[in-house]
Amino acid sequence: MPDWKDKVRCSFCHKKSSDVSKVIAGPGVHICDECINLCNEILEGERLAASTEPRLPMWESMSEEQILDHLPKIAAVQAQVDDNLRDWVAHLRTRDVSWERIGASLGMTRQSAWERFRSET
Ligand SMILES: [Zn+2]
What we know:
Elements: H1 4-7, E1 23-25, E2 30-32, H2 33-49, H3 64-94, H4 99-105, H5 110-117
Antiparallel strand pairs: 1-2
Helix pairs in contact: 4-5
Bound molecules: zinc ion.
């Protein structure tokens, strides 16, 4: 798998897996060791603060510019998840799993699954 390290990016910071020490995979997403460390610091900070303040949606504390800057990051994660889903479906097809079963797994019809995931080449 020569391309693996260039293709996989952390879903949180979007760094390439080749630019971090470790990337851990979840269903369609990845997280790098640096983001895990940041998460641990946030969790530790909350434990120390024993915060009881109500949690606001993230955008309540953001300017419009910050929110606009955030949109392409969400779109990039969405594209990465779509690619990943496509890879998993393509693998099932190499096992001759039917479009019927793939569609059922995703809550869509056989026809919809085929239209969405058939190889374009
Ligand atoms: Zn990261």
